Amino acid sequence: MNDRPLVDKFLKTRSERAFTTLYRAKTPRLYQVALRLTAHDQHRAEELIQEMWIIAVKKLAGFEWRSELMTWLTGILINLSRREKKQNAGELAAQETWQGDWVEEDEEPAFTTDDLEIAMDQLSPGYRRVVILHDIEGYRHKEIAAMLDLNEGTSKSQLHHARKVLRQYLIKGKDKNTRP
Amino acid sequence: MKEELSNYEKKIFGRLKREEQPPADLEKRIVEQLKSDHLITSNTYKMNPIIKWVAASAAAVLLFFTGNYMGKQTIEKQGIDPNRGYMLILHEDDQFKPGDPQEMYQEYGAWMQDTMSKGIAMTGHELKNEADIVDARQHVEHLDENSARKTTGYFILEAESLEVALQVARSNPHIKYGGTIEVKQYMVR
């Protein structure tokens, strides 16, 4: 989608109407990302979206179209969520050192989208971010690295570990459901 | 341990929802904050007096030359907010009795000026009496200018409520000359 006309119109008029057109075009997808980033904490997701738009409107005139508008907005959103989560570093450290048995290669998981959402909610924020960005939103490691200010190798490594942990949560959830 | 997602995992990831409509009041909160931070301006549109005069004159000139009843363009500046959008569709049948073109010209000019001076953004256009109707069989039925019922113009306007839109319609000279105006509200999903 070509977002330039929307952005140009907004920058030209700075009107409420031009903003709401832009807002309505972009927010449903970003709100879904925000819900996942916050493990479906609706209140926090709304706060993130609000903060994101305030920052975006302030910086939009300087946006140079080196990426898609959605990528740029997602980057703002992701970094707002990161800043917040750094304040809860204890939780992050505890979860990111998950140790457990890995899924065997020939074991075919059977899970639903609901199971996947629940398992992702349990991931540490760092792992959740990279899974959301890569496996759901379809960003490449290069883009993720730019958004999160990492190098590509770190992004790949994080995704590798995040998937392992995610599979563990999926199995754990499956066991919980199948046990009497 | 495999690093890549299996086909099954890809399939489930692919089925995840990509969008979620945010609560309606979130937009309002953000807009209010942007306004209070002076980052955006309100929708209230103050029409430049010169533009207003030109718009009214353009409408009047069109009216005069068509010998019909309706003006053309008023405000096209910022589009219409769908939540406040209404369409006025002007119909005529054999009850429609056009008056003196000069009088109609003055009436329509005054009506448009009056409507716009109330801050109601509006655009519109006269339509030809003839029409072509296409159906599922790709058949085209031509209605000539002598058809019993004609759709001869429209206005799109932005109004606070249906009642305001109805007031705008009631005050349109088209009614006085025996025409009818259909008022339709935008559907917003």
Please, could you describe this protein's structure?
The complex is a heterodimer of chains A (180) and B (189). Chain A has 180 residues and is mainly alpha-helical. Chain A is built from 9 helices and no strands. Chain A starts with a helix and ends with a helix. Chain B starts with 6 loop residues before the first helix and ends with a strand. Chain B is built from 6 helices and 6 strands. With 189 residues, chain B is α+β, with helices and mostly antiparallel strands. Chains A and B meet through helix 2, helix 3, helix 6 and helix 9 of A and helix 1 and helix 2 of B.
Question: Total number of helical segments of chain B?
Answer: 6
Cα-based radius of gyration of chain B, to the nearest Å: 23 Å
Instruction: Count interface residues per chain for the largest interface.
Output: A-B, 41 and 35 residues
Describe the global form of chain A: elongated
> What gap, in angstroms, lies between the N and C termini of chain B?
46 Å
Order of H and E elements of chain A = HHHHHHHHH
What are the key terms here?
heterodimer; A: 180 residues; mainly alpha; 74% helix; B: 189 residues; alpha+beta; four-stranded antiparallel beta sheet; two-stranded antiparallel ribbon; 6 helices; flat
Produce the secondary structure layout.
The complex is a heterodimer of chains A (180) and B (189).
Chain A: H1 4-13, H2 16-37, H3 42-59, H4 69-86, H5 89-96, H6 113-122, H7 125-136, H8 141-148, H9 152-178
Chain B: H1 7-15, H2 24-36, H3 49-66, E1 85-92, H4 101-117, E2 122-126, E3 131-134, E4 140-143, E5 150-158, H5 162-171, H6 173-176, E6 180-185
Antiparallel strand pairs in B: 1-5, 1-6, 2-5, 3-4
Helix pairs in contact in B: 3-4
Task: Give a nutshell description of this structure.
The complex is a heterodimer of chains A (180) and B (189). By secondary structure, chain A is mainly α.
